[in-house]
Amino acid sequence: MQFTDLGIDTRLETQLAHQGITQPTDIQAHAVPTALAGHDIFAQSKTGSGKTLAFLLPAVQRVMKQKALSKRDPRVLIVAPTRELATQVFTQLRLLIAGTAIKAVKILGGENFNDQIKALRNDPQFVVATPGRLADHITKRSLQLSGLELLIFDEADRILDLGFTEQLKMINEQANHRLRQTLLFSATLDHAQVDALSRNLLKKPKQITLSAANEQHSDIKQTLYLADHLDHKEALLEHFLNQDDVGQCIIFTATRADTSRLSEALNAKGFKSVALAGDLTQNKRLDIMDSFSRENFKILITTDVASRGLDLLSVTHVINFDLPKHAEEYVHRIGRTGRAGFKGNAISLVGPKDWASYLAIKAFLNDELKFASIESLKAKFKGLKEKKPEAAWDKSKEKAAAVKKPAFKRKAKPKKPTAPIKAPMNIDGDTPMRRKKKPEQE
Ligand code: AMP
C-alpha cells in the first residue's frame, strides 16, 4: 500500500520518500483516511508505531488543500504531554511542511513567554504545545482558538496522568465549535480519565485499536537481571555497557538526582555519558537531546519525563537501572529502542526495591518476563515472597494463590510480608534509590 492510496497528496508522499518512508504503518493506514474523511478519532497506538505521522499527514494535507475558517487563528493545535515529545512532533512537522508557505510554532513551558507571543502574532497555521504553557497563553489572550479546525491530543493518557485535566478543559472550551475535528491518541484507551475525556471532547469518534499498550514489542529483546543493591546494579551496568553490541544507550533511573550521580560514576569509569538532570534549563535539555541524537555521546541517563519524545534509531539498548513505578511507563521506556523495524534490547535491573514494580509490569504484560544472570555477577537476592492473603480473603482464591507459586523463593524464612514501595515520591513520581541494604534484602 502507498500513501497515495490513503488519499495523501503526491507532494507529501515525495516528502516522505526523501525521509525513506514509503509504506504506511498500520496506524497510518487506518487513521489517515478516517481523519481525511473528517471523523473524530479515538486511537490506541503503541509507541514507535508511526502515530505521529498518522495525525500529521491528514493535518498538513487539510491545511494545504482546504480553505481556512479563520485567517488569524491557528488551524491545527497539537497538544503533547512533555516538551521532549512536543519537540519531536514539531521536528516531524517541519520536515513535512518544508518548502511550503505553512507556518508552525512550538509553545513549550520553560521557554521565553514574550518570544512565544511574537511567534503567535505571526499567524501560524500550526501550533504544537505542552498543555500548561498553552493554557497560560489562552488566559493571557495571546492565543485565540475560535478558528481552530483540528485539535489533536498526542499521548492523552500521559497528559492526564501529569495532571493537566483543567488545562484540557480550557483548551476544549476555547475551541468549542461544531466544525472542529478532534483526534485523540493514547497509549491506552483502558483508562477512566481518557475515557471521560473522549466522551467530552469527541463527536461520534471512530475508534482505532490496533495494538494494545501491553502487547510485546517483537523487535525488542527484554531481559531482567536480579540485583542485590546499588553497587551490584552499577557492576551489572558496567558489564552491559562494555558489550560490543551496545550502540547508543538510554539508562533510566528512579529520580533526577540519580541521573547526575550515575552519570558522574560512569564518566569516572571512562564511559561518555550525559544526564538529563532536573535543574537544567529548557535550552540545555534540548541541547543535550540534540547532541545525543547527533551521536556525540553514547549514553543518556534520564527519568520517565524525558522518555516519550526520544525517537532515535541508533538507540540499541534501554537499561532500566530502576524499574518504573507505573507498568505502562515500562512499555514507553523500552519503546525508545527497536524503533521503526530496528532490533533493540531492553535490560532491567531488579533489586528488592523494584520487586513491586516488577510484579506490576509482569501482570500488565500478561507475560512471564525472562530473567538471566551473569555468572560472575549473580545476585543473592531471589525475589520477594508474595504478600500473605488478607483476613477477609476468599478461601478459594487462597487455594488458587497457593498453587500459583511465586517465580522466586527465598531460602531463609522471611520476617514479614513484602511491603509496597512507600518511599517518599520525588518530582517524577518515583521512589528514590537507596544505597543502604535492608536486613531483609540479604
Ligand atoms: P512514532 O510512533 O510516531 O514515534 O514514529 C516512530 C518512528 O517511525 C519515527 O522515527 C518515524 O519517522 C518512523 N516512521 C513513521 N512512519 C513510518 C513509516 N511509514 N515507515 C517507516 N518509518 C516510519
Name its key features.
alpha/beta; seven-stranded parallel β-sheet; 14 strands; Rossmann fold; about 35% helix; about 450 residues; 2 domains
Give the radius of gyration: 23 Å
Q: Which blocks of ≥5 consecutive residues have pLDDT under 50?
A: 389-411, 413-434, 436-442
> Architecture of the largest domain, according to CATH?
3-Layer(aba) Sandwich
Can you tell me the overall shape?
A: globular
How do the strands of the widest beta sheet line up side by side? 3-4-2-5-6-1-7
The chain-level structural class is alpha/beta
Please tally the β strands and state the result. Answer: 14
Instruction: Kindly state the percentage of residues in helix.
Output: 25-40%
CATH class of the largest domain, named Alpha Beta
Mean model confidence by pLDDT: 83
Describe the structure.
The protein is α/β, with parallel strands linked by helices. It folds into two domains: 3-209, P-loop containing nucleotide triphosphate hydrolases (Rossmann fold), CATH 3.40.50; 220-377, Rossmann fold. 36% of the residues lie in helices and 14% in strands. The strands form two sheets. A seven-stranded parallel sheet has the order 3-4-2-5-6-1-7, sandwiched between helices. Strands 10-11-9-12-13-8-14 form a seven-stranded parallel sheet, covered by helices on one side. Strand 3, helix 5 (113-121) and strand 4 (126-129) form a beta-alpha-beta unit. Helix 6 crosses helix 8 (165-174). The protein is globular, with a radius of gyration of 23 Å. The termini are far apart. The relative contact order is 0.12. Residues 389-411, 413-434 and 436-442 have low confidence and may be disordered. The structure holds adenosine monophosphate.
